[in-house]
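Input.
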Amino acid sequence: LVSCGAVNRTVFGTTEETLIKTVAIEQNCPSENVKIVERVKGLHGATYALEVCGKRMVYKQVGSVFMEASKADEMINSFKK
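Output.
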């Protein structure tokens, strides 16, 4: 049995490998220096704590996209207004 979230991540390419590549590019940090230290997955997305070139960051999966948590929260809050 697979959850809807697992299907979404597989179909849309939102894998942890994609997350690491995205973070590496956005933060100008080699992918070998991007490590997932904590993950919380749900039906509609996931939240990841990462160590990025020695700095802790949080990224969220929003649909099929990974975004830095503060930017994701801003986007979600803008829809509520």
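The longest strand covers residues 34-42.
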